[in-house]
Amino acid sequence: MQCETAVREILPAVRSLLAVELKALGLRQEEIAEKLELTQPAVSRYLKQARGKKAKEFLKNKRIMRMIKKTAANLKKGKEFDFCSLCRKVRKATKCCE
């Protein structure tokens, strides 16, 4: 059940926040799509915050935003994205899926 909730609630919010952060770091939508393994139209929707409703809630959490910024910086450098690890940290920080 944790992963089902994570895919439905956490993953879209994290993708939205990462897309915004990667855009702020100077990446184009096509580059963001490649890094997040998404399509460019999906990135566009995440940037418009048409997806990831919990993103607004996560924006208020300094701990989560530090994780997002660090992950975005690592992605820009070419490091791989380990969603499961990030998800566990987000769930712990928000007490989601308990």
Overview of the molecule:
With 98 residues, this protein is mainly α. It has one domain. 72% of the residues lie in helices and 0% in strands. The protein is built from 6 helices and no strands. It has helices spanning 2-24, 29-36, 40-47, 55-59, 62-76, 83-94. α1 (2-24) crosses α5 (62-76). It is globular, with a radius of gyration of 12 Å. The relative contact order is 0.20.
Distance from N terminus to C terminus (CA atoms, Å) equals: 10 Å
Tally of helical runs: 6
Strand content: under 5%
Work out the helicity level.
over 70%
Number of strand elements: 0
Query: H/E order of the elements?
Result: HHHHHH
> Major β-sheet, in short?
none
Shape: globular
Overall pLDDT level: 89
Structural class: mainly alpha
What is the rounded Rg?
12 Å
Oligomer: single chain
Segments where pLDDT lies below 50 for 5+ residues?
A: none
Number of separate domains: 1
Key terms:
mainly alpha; 72% helix; 0% strand; globular
How is the secondary structure organized here?
Blueprint: H1 2-24, H2 29-36, H3 40-47, H4 55-59, H5 62-76, H6 83-94
Summarize the structure.
This protein has 6 helices and no strands.
